[in-house]
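ok so dumb question maybe but i'm new to this and my supervisor (M.) told me to 'just get the structure for Amidohydrolase' and walked off. so i did the thing. is this what she meant?? sequence i used:
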Amino acid sequence: MNKLLLKNGKLVDDKGIYKNDLLIEGEKIVASKKRGSFSSLEKDSKLEFIDLQGKYLFPGIIDAHTHYSLYSRGTVSADDFYKGSIAAAAGGVTTIIDYIDFPEDGDFKRAFKERSKQAEDSIIDYSFHQVIEDFDQNISKKLEDLKEIALASIKIFTTYKKAGYMLDKELYADLFKRLKELKILPTVHAEDDALIQELEAVYKKRNLTEPAVHPAVRASLAEKLAVIELGDAALKTNIPIYIVHLSSADGNQAVKYLREKGVDIYTETAPHYLMLDNSLLKGEDSQLYFMTPPLRSSYDNQKLWEAVSRNEIQIFATDHCAFTKEQKFQSASAFDILPGIPGTETLLALMYSYGVGRNYISLEKMIEMLSVNPAKIFGLYPQKGSLQVGSDADLTIFDPDLEKKLTADNLHSAAKYSPYSNFQVKGYPVITIRRGEIIFSKKSRAEKGSGRFIPAQTSSLFS
Ligand SMILES: [Zn+2]
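this is what came out, is it supposed to look like this??
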């Protein structure tokens, strides 16, 4: 069994920032003690060690919202589980939570098997959220299979009715009741479809289809309306609810209103809703900044940062859905451009430089949002998201002084572009360790397929 000593690091987790040395055996952290405690072990010729020279040591970063190999409109997203996981590892990410498409017949076991087949090339660990598009007696019965598969959460859409993804609102009450029985967390893409369809008709009728109309058609009001409706339904059932990719000040206001009413509501936001604004949809390359929900105004960016500062948002995740420029430029219509951008690789570096670096959050808080909370909320804690003895040795070594200009050339996504090109960052992950193995250090060092499915326990939000 390999033995690895990580010494002279600054550890950051939910216990704070502290100077311990970590001993790893095989895949696990087996000891954590004051600096120098293991110096007698260094004579052991079988022990490898890394002198961190004061760099940070984080529990491996978790991106709780990714879409590798996503089939959409006759094409597939550019990052499959192999390429995507290399890019993730380069960015200090050791676990992702991706999605399983809805099986119409409710055969969740088969759907899991099929998705797992695609995921088995991953070099990092993974879990899934199960998409639910319909609810009847059959689905209700079969939902219990998710417990056996060991998934902690499902995802519903309040939009994309025309594409068939939307779950009818009349079904919220029964679905939530069943999820509560099973202790499965509902996560939601919240945008009111009826409002969007009306706005879409208005813009289409006038032939206004340029990308810059996307934020007007998918107005932040639509996010607010959907969030409130979901919150009310969750309150009636008394179940926790989690909103994915919250994008707007309006949306966050709705969340605050619901919390005051007693709704147990949690949110995730993505770096692009904090750092990019809709003026980018007016440029030549507007397609490269196109996703759903759309980019909002710089006012929204600011309001969401403030919400982060006030601990109103629990998780940073990316909604990573990488398409190549070629795929993005296939259309110039706001009603047709493939939505999605790459994000996992730049998640940690951006949140450190622009979140911690600009004093919106403390370093400990950032690690809570990037590792501890996703692990707890999606049932992977303390196997993941922790530097405790007994946890998986998933570790991100982070150099706070390393300065870098992000470019397509120094990033690894098969998108081969980044919406953050030319962003300057100070602080960057330098070594990524997954279950005791160095998987990324300047380049990928992991074997294809060395990542693994991590069975989830019940979400911490039910306790
Ligand atoms: Zn998504």
